[in-house]
Amino acid sequence: MKLLTIIFSFMLFSCAGSFIGVCYDRIPRGEQIWKGRSHCDNCKRKLGPSELIPVFSILFLRGRCKTCNCRIPATSTVIEIATAALSTLPIIVYGLSVQGIAFGLVTSILIEIALLDMKTMEISNLACILIGAAGIVLMFIKGSYISSLIGAVCISVPFLILALYGGMGMGDVKLMAAVGILLGWEKTLLAAFLGILVGCVAATIIKFKTKREWKSEIAFGPYLCIGTYLAMLCGDSVISWYLSLL
Question: N or C: which end of the chain has fewer CB within 10 A?
């Protein structure tokens, strides 16, 4: 049964990954994501149902359009596989529970946020609302009202102050407010710490590889998403380990 759950979750989240791939491709170009069927970028032929199966279609087609034989970009397939794998992991960790399902769904949303923030430097309000909604559901189930309320402000308020002085984007503020409701204050602090740590390392690497100035604007949302994902998966263990050192 557990294997069937994992397989079903992988297939379901691969469909979510397919939608994220559409968003990643269309939104930066100003195209509608709800209208218009997917098509080959080279010959413009609309894809049939058999060509829209997540992960498997590109394997069946051997990575090429069956009409013009043009190579199909692997970006969408990579997004589908990554979304399916990363979103299934919380269900493996927490089981087929409300928390496992919620964390799996939130993982897919975090992937969408990270990819689009890298490409557009914007974080969707809807994505933050969905994370916050998942957090509210868990808050009522677990009764973690105080922790969630503190979590909603413990990072977002300092980020808001930074945003007012141009040091942070408002999207990051909204993201961490939603994450705070979802994770509670302890794991939100951990998520922010891990995100900032990963972001600093990445910014240093980018700076020396591209010779950009330190004040150059970079998307910080992806690193906050990484920190949030790690906090969701192993936050309790990390916090327990840290407290044991005190």
Answer: C
64: three-class secondary structure by DSSP? strand
DSSP state of 69: -
Q: pLDDT value at position 66?
A: 66
Token pair 């939130």: residue: 106
Give me the mean pLDDT over the 178-199 stretch.
96
**Contacts of 9 by beta carbon, 8 Å cutoff, 6+ apart:** 84, 87, 88, 91, 104
Q: Are 80 and 21 in contact (CB under 8 A)?
A: yes
CA-to-CA distance for 104 and 85, rounded, in angstroms? 10
* pLDDT tens-digit series, residues 114-166: 999 999 989 999 999 999 999 999 999 999 999 999 999 999 999 999 999 88
| Cβ atoms of 196 and 227 closer than 8 Å | yes
CA distance 63 to 56: 10
Helix axes 2-26, 98-120, angle to 10 degrees: 20
Residue 113 makes CB contacts below 8 A (sequence gap 6+) with 123, 124, 127, 175, 221, 222, 225
> What integer pLDDT is reported at residue 129 of this predicted model?
97
What lies within 8 Å, CB to CB, of 28 at 6+ separation is 116, 119, 120
Partners of 124 in beta bridges:
none
Task: Give the chain's radius of gyration (CA, Å).
Answer: 19
The whole-angstrom separation of Cα 169 and Cα 36 is 32
Whether 246 has a pLDDT exceeding 80, the answer reads no
